[in-house]
Design a protein that fits this description.
This protein is α/β, with parallel strands linked by helices. Helix content is 45%, strand content 13%. The protein contains ten helices and seven strands. Helix 1 packs parallel to helix 2, helix 3 packs parallel to helix 4 and helix 4 packs parallel to helix 6.
């Protein structure tokens, strides 16, 4: 199926690692022009080289802190100077590590501010900056990356979970406001994907003493234990990062002409495993 992405201008925030990197490479393979943002210069250079090899010869990276308005404005200023337009924005960057070991009453105000600023305001700022470029291009697609945590909850992830729940509401509002301009906005709710961030979390919590961080079924069992039987999904394993790509490619392309304001889970069926 031709998704119509050849030559499309695509920006992926947080595109140098994990799901963001995998998505960027997938868009490059579809023939899109791709720019990724990230905080680390080395990771940006490495990812840009991978994107160019995958089919996006003019790919570039922008060192950006999505928690800072000035940094976002500078990034989109560079996109404007290079391309003058933008078709697709994947708001992947966010507070990826749950606040460890603290319930809502123990997390200090600065932690709450960080998660809300990076988890919600970065999406507001990036999307706001992208809108003039999408209007100039004639069509736009925005995909916001939420989390299954916003649905199933956790006693130790209150700031993270709250930010993702707020993002779900924000997605609905933005989608309603912009749909008639052919700018379609949706959210995707991933379950557990095996990433370096997840591996690190397993290591610092001591889970690797019992579970193999390279075994998808083992990680699933660990998540079931941590979440008291919930959160695992009925497929019986966690996901590889590349498994999110077909959904992101569709929602971020002109082939999606009628999905708007949706929040689509890609979580291995957690609804069936929530007791």
């Amino acid at each position: 199926m031709d998704l119509g992405l050849k030559g499309a201008a695509v920006c992926i925030s947080g595109g140098t690692k994990g799901l963001g990197r995998e998505a960027a490479i997938a868009f490059a393979r579809e023939g899109a022009r791709v720019v990724v943002t990230g905080r680390g210069a080395e990771a940006l250079a490495r990812t840009v080289a991978e994107l160019q090899a995958a089919g996006a010869p003019d790919a570039f990276g922008l060192q950006t802190d999505v928690g800072e308005l000035a940094s976002i404005d500078a990034a989109f200023g560079e996109i404007t100077a290079r391309w003058g337009e933008l078709n697709t924005l994947i708001n992947m960057a966010g507070p990826t590590d749950p606040s460890p070991g603290a319930d809502f009453s123990e997390a200090p105000d600065e932690t709450w501010r960080h998660y809300l600023d990076v988890g919600i305001m970065s999406v507001v700022r990036c999307t706001r900056a992208a809108l003039p470029l999408m209007r100039k291009a004639g069509w736009g697609r925005v995909v916001n990356i939420s989390s299954v945590s916003a649905r199933v909850g956790s006693p130790f992830e209150a700031p993270y979970m709250t930010a993702k729940a707020g993002l779900n509401g924000l997605t609905k509002n933005m989608a309603w406001a912009l749909a008639k301009e052919n700018i379609l906005i949706n959210a995707v709710t991933p379950g557990v994907f095996t990433t370096e961030a997840l591996r690190h979390y397993m290591q610092v919590t001591g889970a690797t003493a019992k579970y193999d961080p390279d075994n998808l079924a083992d990680i699933w069992s660990w998540m079931r234990e941590v979440q008291g039987g919930r959160h695992g999904g009925v497929i019986g394993r966690v996901a590889q990062p590349s498994e999110i790509n077909p959904l992101l490619l569709l929602l971020g392309s002109p082939a999606n002409s009628y999905i708007v304001g949706a929040n689509i889970p890609i979580d291995g069926g957690t609804d069936f495993s929530m007791g």
